[in-house]
Design brief:
This protein has ten helices and twelve strands. The chain is α/β, with parallel strands linked by helices and 286 residues long. It folds into two domains: 53 residues, no CATH class; 204 residues, Rossmann fold (3-Layer(aba) Sandwich). It has an eight-stranded mixed sheet, sandwiched between helices. Strand 9, helix 7 and strand 10 form a beta-alpha-beta unit.
């Protein structure tokens, strides 16, 4: 094996290492430095912490798993994957008919936005068979696990929708949704990321369009920042806060649906004694 290292570049932020294996350069970092800056040397890596990955199969296997999951999602009856054009152009036929067309009942519709692997969606569906639960996320390879678990365990009131959250109003009709769960969202702490926070005014307006007038939103998070930001916004805009708790496992009053279901990462947070916060609220109608 012959190793190839980049010399320290004269411009900031361009640190990079390459390996030449069988005369093929393999990029090690995302930064790119033109080939003319490279020099070949055996065992010489100035200013770099060198870690060699003997095989390139790691990324290949990950990609293959994703493709396999995407393909399997297409065969799942509980996974819905409309195109962006279908949603925007009003060609998504199940909109307004989720209960009777997909679930074959008239039970309440509950969403989990940014559902990740779908653990919470499946757990809620298993606990409350009298309601229909839909996990929403753009990353189908993640919620594949939840969809597969629901099928394997015969949980027929759990489904998954692969769309971007900002398009939620195009997937559900006015007053079609009874509740929304937002579990452990990215707090988007940087100011320039404010527009991506899932409880900002932009998103609340979209939730309002699909929720029934007495619809409820649940926010469960390990981020004290997200908890405080959301409480401040809700009070500032005049929304109704029904319940708020900055440490649900150490204070009384939280319902069983809040403390009785834990995701994998939530369990890890609790092991580190990290408080889990919760807010239940309604969006003002006027």
């Amino acid at each position: 094996m012959q190793r190839v290292a980049w010399p320290k570049p004269q411009f900031k932020g361009a640190t990079s290492i390459r390996f030449a294996i069988a005369n093929q350069d393999v990029p090690f970092t995302q930064n790119y430095v033109p080939q003319r800056y490279a020099f070949k040397s055996l065992g010489y890596f100035p200013n770099f912490a060198f870690q060699y990955i003997a095989s390139r199969k790691v990324n290949t296997v990950g990609s293959k798993n994703k493709l396999k999951r995407f393909k399997e999602n297409e065969s799942f009856g509980n996974v819905i994957q409309p195109s962006r054009d279908q949603l925007i152009q009003g060609q998504f036929g199940i909109k307004g008919h989720w209960a009777n067309q997909l679930f074959k009942n008239d039970h309440p519709i509950v969403l989990e936005l940014g559902c990740g692997k779908g653990e919470y969606t499946v757990a809620l569906a298993n606990r409350y068979p009298e309601k229909n639960f839909i996990g929403v996320d753009i990353k189908g390879a993640r919620f594949w696990r939840g969809a597969k678990t629901a099928i394997e365990n015969g949980i027929s009131n759990a489904a998954f929708l692969r769309i971007q959250i900002e398009l939620i109003e195009h997937a559900f009709a006015q007053n079609e949704v009874d509740e929304i769960w937002i579990t452990f969202p990215d707090p988007q702490i940087k100011y320039k990321r404010t527009k991506h926070r899932m409880t900002n005014s932009f998103f609340l307006e979209r939730y309002k369009k699909i929720l029934k007038p007495d619809g409820i939103i649940h926010l469960k998070t390990d981020s004290e920042f997200m908890h405080g930001y959301t409480l401040g916004l809700l009070h500032g805009e005049g929304h109704e806060v029904l319940y708020a708790n900055h440490d649900i496992y150490r204070q009384h009053g939280s319902s069983d649906e809040v403390t009785g279901i834990q995701t994998h990462y939530e369990s890890l947070y609790l092991e580190k004694n990290k408080p889990i916060t919760y807010i239940r609220f309604k969006i003002k109608q006027s």
